[in-house]
Structures are given as C-alpha cells and as structure tokens.
Amino acid sequence: xxxxxxxxxxxxxxxxxxxxxxxxxxxxxxxxxxxxxxxxxxxxxxxxxxxxxxxxxxxxxxxxxxxxxxxxxxxxxxxxxxxxxxxxxxxxxxxxxxxxxxxxxxxxxxxxxxxxxxxxxxxxxxxxxxxxxxxxxxxxxxxxxxxxxxxxxxxxxxxxxxxxxxxxxxxxxxxxxxxxxxxxxxxxxxxxxxxxxxxxxxxxxxxxxxxxxxxxxxxxxxxxxxxxxxxxxxxxxxxxxxxxxxxxxxxxxxxxxxxxxxxxxxxxxxxxxxxxxxxxxxxxxxxxxxxxxxxxxxxxxxxxxxxxxxxxxxxxxxxxxxxxxxxxxxxxxxxxxxxxxxxxxxxxxxxxxxxxxxxxxxxxxxxxxxxxxxxxxxxxxxxxxxxxxxxxxxxxxxxxxxxxxxxxxxxxxxxxxxxxxxxxxxxxxxxxxxxxxxxxxxxxxxxxxxxxxxxxxxxxxxxxxxxxxxxxxxxxxxxxxxxxxxxxxxxxxxxxxxxxxxxxxxxxxxxxxxxxxxxxxxxxxxxxxxxxxxxxxxxxxxxxxxxxxxxxxxxxxxxxxxxxxxxxxxxxxxxxxxxxxxxxxxxxxxxxxxxxxxxxxxxxxxxxxxxxxxxxxxxxxxxxxxxxxxxxxxxxxxxxxxxxxxxxxxxxxxxxxxxxxxxxxxxxxxxxxxxxxxxxxxxxxxxxxxxxxxxxxxxxxxxxxxxxxxxxxxxxxxxxxxxxxxxxxxxxxxxxxxxxxxxxxxxxxxxxxxxxxxxxxxxxxxxxxxxxxxxxxxxxxxx
Length: 783
Prior knowledge:
By secondary structure, this protein is mostly helical. The chain contains 32 helices and 2 strands. It has a domain at 569-718: Four Helix Bundle (Hemerythrin (Met), subunit A), CATH 1.20.120. The protein has helices spanning 5-30, 34-38, 40-59, 83-106, 113-132, 136-154, 161-192, 197-203, 212-226, 235-238, 244-252, 258-270, 276-297, 301-322, 325-356, 367-370, 372-385, 392-405, 411-434, 453-471, 473-489, 505-522, 524-538, 542-564, 569-590, 605-623, 627-647, 651-672, 685-711, 717-729, 735-743, 745-766, and strands spanning 63-70, 75-81. A hairpin with a 4-residue loop joins β1 (63-70) and β2 (75-81). The radius of gyration is 35 Å and the shape is elongated. The model is unreliable at 776-783 (pLDDT under 50).
C-alpha cells in the first residue's frame, strides 16, 4: 500500500462519514447512478481491511492502531485488527458495496434518495467503528451511533405512522441496551484498570473477579437488545418498515450482528463459566425456536426473512454460549454463510416487491420465467440457508452438529434445539425462494419483469459466493475464518473446509434436519394456521408489552409532573428548602459533623447595633402585613449584611452586597407597582408555624454547617496557588480580580448571563400593560 497501514485504517474509518457529507451532492449530479460511484467507498474500506487484516495474519497477532483523542482521560481513537474484526469488517464493507449499488436502483426517482445515501454511509461508518474499536469509550460511542443512524433509516419514510413507531421502538430498545453496555464497560475498566479491549483481553478471564456477575449481566443486556434475543426480539421484525436496502444491510452484515460480535469479543474474559454456558444457550435456543415459528406464520417475504434473522442470531448466540471450540467454529462458519445468503434473499425480496408491487407470497407465483436471474440467486441462497451440500452453509451446519453431538452435558439439549430450528429455517428459506417463483403465474399490482442490473448484481454475487467460498475452502478456512475462531476461543483453529461429503453422524443429523424441513414446507399452510391460533390464544406478546410500557411511562410521567410541577410557587419554595435542609442535616447526622460548642464572641457596641438592625429588619419582614413593607424590610436585612461584610474586612464584597440589595429593592418595587401593594396576605396560624419551622430548620442547618467548616483547619493550598500564579499566569496584581476574570472567567460569564436574562425578564414584566375589566374600571392587577 502506498500509505502506512495505520493511516489507511483511519482513512477507511473516516471514509463513510465523509461520503455521507457528499452523497447528496453526488446524487444531485448523477441521479440514481450515483450508487455506482458511491459504492467505491465501501469497496475502498474492504480493500483496506483486507490488506491490514492480512498483515495481522502474517504477524500472527492482533494489530493496534491508535491516535490520542482525550489524553487526560486516557481516551483514544484506537482500532484493533485481528481475525474477528477483520471478518466483520470485510462483511460490512463487502456487502455494503452491493447495498449501495442496490440502493441506487431500488430508490430510483425517490425525492430523498440523496439523503438516504447519506444515512446509509453514517450507519456503515458506525458499524465499521464498532467492530474495529479498541478503546472502550470509542466502542460505546460507535455502538450508540448505530442506534441513532438506524433510527433515521428505519423511520426514513417518516410520513407513515408505522415507520415512526418502528424507528422509535428500535431506538428505545437498543438505546436502553447501550446504557446497559456502558455500565458493563465501566465495570470492566474498574475490574481490570484497562481502558482498551486489547488490554482487557490481555488480563485474561474475569470469572473469579467479584464484579464478574454484574459485568456479565450488563454486557449481555447490551448484546441481547442489539441482536434481538428473546424477549427483545420484537423490534427487529418491526424494523422492516425501513426500505429494503436497509433491511438487507441491517440483517445480513451490520447492526443485528453487533451483539453477536460483542459476545464473541468478550468470550475470552467472560466466557466458559457456568453462568455463560447457561444463560446464552437458554436465551439463544428460545430465540431460535421463537424466531423460526414466527417466521413460518408470515406471508410477507421481508417478515419471513426478518424472523429467520432473529432465529439465526439466536443460533449464533447459543453456539457461542457453549464455549466449545468446535461449536464456536460452527458459529463462525454460520455467521459468514448467513451474511451471504441473508443479504441475497433480502435483496431478492426487495426486487420482487419493486417489480411486482407486492411481497405477499400468497399473491405471487410463476415468477421464475419472468425473473430468471432473481430466481436463480434466490434458489442458490436458499440452498445455502437450508444447509444443503456444496455450499458454505452446509459446512457450517455440519460443524455445529459435530461439536454438539460430541459434547457433554447440555450439548444434547442444544443439539436438539439446533436441529428443530434449522429444519424450520430450511422451510422458511425455501418458502421465500420457491413459492413466489413456482406454480401458476398470478396477476400482480405491477407487471412482473426482471429488474435492472443494479437490483440483481448484489444477489447474484452473494449467492455465488456461498458456493465459491467452498471451492476455495482451504484458503477461506485457514486465512479468513480460522483466525476469527482463534480470536474468540483463544484456542488455535485451523478449519479444513472442503466440498466432500462425509457419511457420518453429523451428516445423518443433516438428513433428519432436511426431512423435517421438507415436511414443514409441505404442510406450511397448516403450520401457519396452527402458529396463528396459538398466538391468538396467548393474546399477549413483547411487542404489545412495549406499547403498554410506553403508555405506563407516559402516565407515570404525567402524574409525577402534576405532583412536582403544581404551578404554585409556594410549593416549589417549600420543597426546595426542605431538600436543602435534608442535604445539610443528614450528612452531619450520619458522620457526626455537628459543630463543637463555642464561646460567644465579644462584640463592640456598633457591632451589636448592626446585629440589632438586622434582627429588626427580620422582625419587620416576618410581621409585615403588606407587600410594600415586606420589600422595604428586606432591604434593611441586606444593608445590615453589607455592613457586617465591611466591618470584617471584605469591602469589595460589601460593595457588591450594597449594589445587589439596592437593585433588588428598586426592581422589586417597580415590579410590584404592577400589582396591588396594599394587598394583605391572610395567613393562618398553621401556615405561619409550618413556614417558621422550615425557615428555622434550614437556617439552623446552614449555620451549623458554616460553624463546622470554620472550626476545621484552614487549607491554604488554593490560596497559595492563586497568590503564586495570579501575576505569573494571568498577569494581574489584584488577586480577587484575577480569580473572577481569569481563573473563573467562564463561571463569571455564566453569572453575568444569568443576571442579564433576569433583567430582561424583569423588564418584560414591567412593560406589561394593565388590562382593564370589561366595565372600564381599572383593576390594578396583571391578569
């Protein structure tokens, strides 16, 4: 490469974000053909990952490329390139290349196609960052960016309520999981003292650490929500409201596999424990069965494929959860095969919809003669999805069966679940690939015909790769998939992939799987009715539960708001003073920090006079019967405090207090002129007692705190710093001014801004004109 690998990987990571900026411009110039040019961006990313990943394979170890970002917090933009991140990066960039081309043809003529390209590149860059990020904070940022960008893509057709709901649902579920993941990452940093994934992996297993359980639970929360594990699976099929290019990319190569990637990445430090090998197989197995059953119920091509994606994710989680090295190899093989056949089938579904106007398999038939290229691609992809010979899907299924059949303990349970799930996925895959294309030709909303090259290029290439990779199986196994399995299990893996068929126990289990799949496909209509009947009998599901949770949250927020935000200033002040009193008193009680007894200071007559004036002002405020008297009495209090500041050596503070009190009295008086100053506030004895107790408790607590602080030894470090640096750093001799203007410059600016906004608000109140009653008599009140 003409540039260093470090520079290349950073360029590849930045490329999709740069492309997102210019994509609308390119589309404006080239129209839908912009897809051909824009596809060069993910193609470049693919090339970079291929080259850099190749160096990692040659070096025999992971390569780390870092650039400081926030050095003071040890946060850097760093990328980890090993077998795991290399394969994910190649899948994201490779399939992304065909998705961009496909998008150009699928959304041809759409008024917002340029914006769509931009969103797709943002999504691509986010997922690319997730699988390459080494620094944990960087990983979290990319992780959440996938949720945000998927929200934009799922809700792309924002005029439809269903699209908006699906987008919001995906954002809430995956965003909530992201917060769980953040907690897990922070706990991992606390447990290891490392801020990078490579550093954590170097520390070894955390199974014996006291924080292992909370780390595992929070990390699984992030992974399960992102990869749609039961009971969080409902958001993924609803995301089919997005345009088909989004569905194809999201389901085959990107977002939904982020959770699987995370589990595979942390397997060396969190895996192979009793909790890991229990939780993951159980949740993965349930997700596999639920996903396949719900897939068989559907008649919409995209929904069938969406639920099989849920099932496939469950299968990969289940296999990873066994922590068996060969089972992990099966998960790696299946993940690779799934990316190819699922990307192809989703694009096929989109092409059928684009060229016929419908995705309902009950309204489609005979398309193999009208759309021969699309049919061929779909059939080969379904062949791989069904795990039939001469495809990489067959090798993946054979490998997982070999691992589970020779496993111990719960491996038999996992094997049975895998056979049932694979059989139903076989039926669902061939339902998509055969029912629309065989049988009598049906009339469709649009006259069916083969789509343009931009629509069938991706499906043809991806389906062909499912066979070609088997032809070059030795290289694929040793150079591509083997290093990935090694990175997950930390056990050397040299996969031997060959098209030969071995008549052994795994092959026999494959025959059983295919036989069950053919039976389900033959009785598909009956199975669909049976599943629908069961779901009607249950009557409730996580999707409905999500709506109920959202409604409950809204009702709770309304109730809390009505309670907390009552609209009464007296209530707000009461709560504020009570909370302040509790915040002052509770710590002193818990830590026994009450002030020690002190002797009364000897005061001069003028000091006593000032305190007497302050007490007199306080009495005047408390006993005032009208608002005007209360305002003037409040000024007496403030001026007395200013005199105290002056007597005890703080003339600048005293001057500030004089100004503030003068302005406060003047401004309040001006505001009050808009009101009835002769109005008397009737207050019951109970109300006076309540307010008096609150005032005494809060004031006493604050006084106790101040006495406690003054009784502690004076720490002069901050004062010494200002004295030593005011002249050197800020070039000022007046230390107080330097502190206010330089060291606390932003703080001072904020205070000035608050005063300015307050002044403007007061000015607006003063300028309000008095409204008059209908009879013309002035009320003297602002209404």
